[in-house]
Every structure is written in structure tokens, then in C-alpha cells.
Amino acid sequence: MRISSFTALTIAGALLTLAPLSSASAYTLKTLHSFCNEANCGDGDTPRNGVLVDSSGNVFGTTEFGGKYNKGVVFKLIPNATRTKYTEHILYSLCKKAGCPFGAYPDSEPIMDVDGDLYLTTQGGGSHTDGAVIKMRPVSNGWVISVIHSFCAQPPDCPDGGVPASALTYAGKESGALWNESSPLFGTTNTGGTNNKGTAYELSPNGSGWTHQVLHNFNSPSESAYPSALLEDPSGNLFGVTYMGGNNGVGVLYKLAAGSWTETTLHNFCADANCTDGSGGFGRLAMDGAGNIFGTTLIGGSGANCPEPDGCGVAFERTAGGNYKVIYNFCAKTNCNDGNEPAAGLNIDGAGTLFGTTHLGGPATLGTVFTLTHGSNKWNNQVLYAFCSEQNCTDGAGPGSPVAFDGSGDVYGTTDEDGANGSGGTVYRLKP
User: Fold this and answer.
1) Is 70 helix (H, G, I), strand (E, B) or coil?
2) Of 185, 244, 279, 363, whose CB has the highest number of CB atoms within 10 Å?
3) Is the pLDDT of residue 18 over 60?
């Protein structure tokens, strides 16, 4: 199995408002911030995850590296009255204390609760160096940081999991609601568990603290392994994809039944000849009002112009009735102008349009933001923006994160690379 460039970076090392958007047409990109603007990238470096946009238009996010201690930052971009200029504020530079007890190398965009507190995962640091879930509470003179859970509490086997792999989810997140501070939070880890192939876990507030529970231990090759982010449906069931494992060793689409948390495989990737149904599930899933699930695989598919022998990725649908089908093969267009390696999964807006990013492809081969819209019995791909369209890639390159929406229909995200400072990545906004 080919390990994609995006997966190699990720394994080696989500938005809040889902308003109906206008039909995709010409979008204009504005770079809200280019990282590594300060000496030694004190303002952050490599925003590999997505962003969160609050009701006031503030943009919250994380970078994997940079900051005062080069272990990543949590940032906030504050707009002026007309939202034509954004000013970065560093809310927290990770690893302020020896041993990084409050985490290092943040691995997700934040989620927000009804009081304005932020929650995120880190792939390093914590009490046992295998990552943590942290909470950030705003106070008059800054932010108070606390650890909800440090992973690998029982080394070296880490039965509670290690290296949390993605953003947290909760009931109502898909509809744009803030977390209510009482329902459980759910997430996944890339390592640890009884088989050291990752876990699905639950964090529940218990009045005086938090209770951590492993819901599922992933396994390979007979079952799924290396999970991406979770999606919770209105009945409390959890859904996700894995990059490896399953009958064919290249991942599955699965369901964890609410309460029992029994895993059901909904689709084994590479079930079709030449993996035309997709291979290597990656990124977040989206669900429409009818219960249909949408997602992506990094490789596989049958894109007519794909230069890779293992395929350039697909977008898929698993209907509420149980039917699986590929709805788009990437690199279907000449020179892969429609994108290659859809690394972040999919988001869906109120009109049923799917939004995603590709880490590669586009005219400059350095990534795209795209939509998929349904019409005339097929799904149509439209590239909203192709990165490195500006000289020296000052607009950024290599988007590997999901997009977020605001109430006006603008689309926000990050790029891993380039920008006005030659490296470091960017935060961008696309306006229809």
C-alpha cells in the first residue's frame, strides 16, 4: 500500500456554523495570516489542523510547531469591524513547563463550549508524553490551562490509548451547536489500546473532574486500525474510517453502536478490483439530514488522469439504506486539476453541498479546496481555489485540514506550507 505524502507526515508526527451556502461559483481567497512572521516562528508554524469560527468572526486554531518553545501554539485571529484585517493573538505556547505536562504538538482544531472555553488534543506531552486533551478557560488576564486526560497512563502498553489523532466530537456538533458541557466528548487515538492500533474513547464530566473510558480497541489486520475523527449521529452512534486494517488491510468505514459500542464494518475498502472503491480511509465524515454518510479515501479510485499506480483518492457515500458507492474519483480531470489526495474528509453545508480539500493536485499541484454537488444523477466537482496561484506561493500550499463555515457562507481553512514568509503555512478565507 502506498503511504501518501500527507499520511507520512501525519502518522509520523474538523466549523461551528453550518449555514446554507450559496451555490459554488467564483470564490476569492484572502490570506488572514501567514505564519513564521516572527523570529523563530514565534507566531506558530504548520497549522496542520482546521479552524473554529465563532459568532463574532474570531478564528481559533492551532499550529503543530513554532511558538515560544517550538511545540506549537493555540491562536486567535481577531477581525476588524469590516473583517478586512485580522490580528493574531497567541493564546498559549505549548510546553511552557519542563516535560510539557500541558501537552505539545497540538493535533486538532479547538471545539468550544457554551461558556467560551476551548478544548483540543495534543499528540505529545502530558503526564506521560503520549498526548493529552486540554481545556482552556478565558479569564480577565489570559487563559487558564488544565489537562482533562493524559494518555498512556499505564506505560508501556498504554491501554487507555496514545497520541490522540483528531478533534473531539459531541452530540450536536454536526448541526453547529456549541458543546453543552454535560454530554460526553468522543475522540480517537492513533496508538495504544490492547492491540496498540488505537482506541475510540469517551470523556465525561463527573462534577469534580472527568472520567475517561475506552469504548473500542482497534486491531489489525483482522479488524480496523489507525482511526480518523469520529462523527456522532442523532441516536448517539459513532462513525469513522480507518487508514489500515479490515479484510483487505487498507481500512474500513465502521459504526460503533451507542451504548454497547460494538463495531460493525459498513464497508471494507479495496473490496473492488484495483481498489476502485477507494483505499486508505482518512479524514472526517459528514452526514446529511437523511442519514447518508460521506467521506474520502486518500488513495484508490479510478481517476482517469491519476499518475499514481495506487490511485489518487475518492469521495464516497454510504446511504442510510446501506449502499456504498464512489461519488467522485480524484484526478478525473486533465493534469489532476480537480485535486489529488483528499486528506481532510468532508464537511456538508445546510444546502447539502460537500466541501473538502486535497493536499495535492490543482494547476500548481499543491492542493485545492473543492465542492461536490449532486445533480443529473451524478456528483459534480468544482474547484473553489487552487493553491500556489500567487507568485512564490504566498497564498499557501498543501492544505491538509477540513474547512469551516461562518454564518455568511464564507469558507475558512489552513495550509500546511508556504505563505508570505516562505514557509509556515497560512489561515485563509474564501468568499463567494
Assistant:
1) coil
2) 279
3) no
Question: What is the Cα–Cα distance from 410 to 28, expressed in whole angstroms?
Answer: 10
CB 173 within 8 A of CB 144: no
DSSP 214-243: EEEE--SSSSEEEE---EE-TTS-EEEEEE
Measured between alpha carbons, how far is 32 from 88 in angstroms, rounded to an integer? 9
Residue 363 burial (C-beta neighbours within 10 Å; 0-12, 13-18, 19+): middle
Task: Kindly state the DSSP code that residue 116 receives in the 8-state scheme.
Answer: S
Give the per-residue pLDDT at 219. 86
Rounded Cα gap, residues 276 and 428, in angstroms = 33
How does pLDDT run across 30-40, given as a tens digit for each residue?
999 999 999 99
Mean pLDDT of the chain, nearest integer: 92
Residue 8 parent element (H or E): helix 5-12
Phi-psi region of 162 (alpha: psi -120 to 50; beta: other; left: phi over 0): beta
Report which of 22, 48, 23 is spatially closest to residue 35, judged by C-alpha positions: 48
Residue 144's pLDDT band, with cuts at 50, 70 and 90, is very high
Q: Which residues fall within 8 angstroms of residue 85, CB to CB, at 6 or more apart?
A: 79
Domain 5-431, classified CATH 2.130.10.10, yes or no: yes
217 half-sphere exposure, CB direction, 13 A CA radius: 11
Q: Are 68 and 93 in contact (CB under 8 A)?
A: yes
What is d(CA 373, CA 229) in angstroms, rounded to the nearest whole number?
A: 23
Give 399's strand partners.
none
Q: If you ran DSSP here, which 8-state letter would residue 250 be given?
A: B
User: Please, is 1 exposed, middle or buried when counting C-beta atoms within 10 Å of its C-beta (0-12, 13-18, 19+)?
Assistant: middle
- Within 8 A by CB and 6+ apart from 330, the residues are 301, 303, 306, 312, 313, 314, 315, 336, 338, 339, 340, 341, 342, 358, 361
Phi and psi for 5 in degrees, rounded to 5?
-60, -40
Please choose, from the candidates 278, 270, 231, 226, the residue with its C-alpha nearest in 3D space to the C-alpha of residue 247.
270
252 and 266 Cβ atoms separated by less than 8 Å: yes
Q: State how far Cα 126 lies from the chain centre.
A: 21
Beta carbons of 191 and 162 less than 8 angstroms apart: yes
Give the whole-angstrom CA distance, residue 332 versus residue 318: 21
Taking alpha carbons only, the member of 279, 217, 276, 215 closest to residue 247 is 279
Residue ranges with strand state E in 269-391: 279-281, 286-287, 293-299, 314-318, 324-329, 347-348, 354-358, 368-375, 378-386
Single pTM value for the model: 0.93
b/e per residue 279-306 (b: at least 16 CB within 10 A): bbbbbbbbbbeeebbbbbbbbbbbbebb
- For residue 139, what are the contacts with CB-CB under 8 A and spacing of at least 6? none
